[in-house]
């Protein structure tokens, strides 16, 4: 058969889990750890999460203040660019919508975000990809506090993009314009990283 590729909706007809596995991915039951560096020690007394507009601080929360914000539960599938996918993962955290609201913002001050982590890792995401319940700062996984090797005490979760966008040990979301490529994006990976369009590498 030639012509247009079969659409996702069509392929999904049979139900089942295959329709939930993006091209080139396979399912895993375990939860692999992928870190570019060592796991930073957990230090809740000095933990801070901040929002910046360029170089100007917008808001900052201590751990206590962060936990006092309204919380959200998310059940989502996650997809790592190294080809593993994991279905129906359960997370609790604070949505980015809630953070913006708590900071007194009705919309993102700039169209792009650079997430900064303890340890120096960075990743970039368009601001709109963090809104409308699509992303959160997660602090619980499967009903337990988030394991340090998986980003505890808290990580960004952006499940509709490859998992390298879900920055572990996140400390700051910096709103910027133009977009600033993060660690993997600077090292040959795709600037956006949509698993359904198999945007693994620059140029895909
Ligand atoms: N701070 C930080 N966040 C990170 C990474 C990292 O090396 N450092 N690796 C990314 C990559 S490539 C992936 S696939 C996921 C892995 O998350 P996990 O170790 O919880 O599976 O975290 C992402 N977030
Ligand atoms: Mo990854």
List the total number of helices. Answer: 4
Our estimate of the beta-strand percent is 25-35%
- Summed over residues and divided by their number, the pLDDT gives a mean of 93
Distance between the termini: 24 Å
Spell the H/E element sequence: HEEEHEEHEEEEEEH
- The CATH architecture assignment turns out to be Alpha-Beta Complex
CATH superfamily: Oxidoreductase, molybdopterin-binding domain
CATH class: Alpha Beta
Q: How many separate domains?
A: 1
Strand segment tally: 11
Cα-based radius of gyration, to the nearest Å: 17 Å
Decide which structural class fits the backbone. Answer: mainly beta
Q: CATH fold name, please?
A: Sulfite Oxidase, Chain A, domain 2
Oligomer: single chain
List cofactors, ions and other ligands. ligand MTE, molybdenum atom
Query: Shape from CA axes?
Result: globular
Largest sheet: 6 strands, mixed
The amount of helix comes to under 10%
Point out poorly predicted stretches: 1-15
InterPro entries: OxRdtase_Mopterin-bd_dom, OxRdtase_Mopterin-bd_sf
Protein name: Sulfite oxidase-like oxidoreductase
Pfam families: Oxidored_molyb (PF00174)
Domain Oxidoreductase molybdopterin-binding: 37-184
């Amino acid at each position: 058969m030639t012509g247009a590729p079969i659409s996702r909706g069509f392929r999904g007809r049979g139900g089942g889990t295959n329709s939930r596995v993006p091209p080139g991915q396979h399912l895993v039951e375990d939860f692999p750890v992928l870190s570019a560096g060592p796991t930073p020690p957990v230090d809740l007394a000095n933990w801070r999460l901040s929002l910046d507009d360029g170089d100007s601080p917008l808001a900052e929360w201590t751990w206590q203040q962060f936990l006092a914000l309204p919380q959200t539960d998310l059940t989502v599938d996650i997809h790592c660019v190294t080809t593993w996918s994991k279905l129906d993962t359960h997370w609790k955290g604070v949505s980015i919508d809630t953070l913006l609201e708590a900071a007194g913002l009705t919309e993102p001050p700039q169209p792009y975000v650079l997430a900064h982590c303890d340890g120096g890792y960075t990743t970039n995401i368009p601001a709109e990809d963090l809104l409308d319940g699509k992303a959160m700062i997660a602090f619980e996984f499967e009903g337990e506090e988030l394991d340090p090797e998986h980003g505890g005490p808290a990580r960004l979760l952006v499940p509709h993009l490859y998992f390298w966008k879900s920055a572990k040990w996140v400390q700051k979301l910096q709103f910027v314009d133009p977009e600033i490529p993060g660690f993997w994006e600077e090292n040959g990976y795709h600037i956006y990283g949509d698993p359904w369009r198999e945007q693994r590498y620059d140029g895909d």
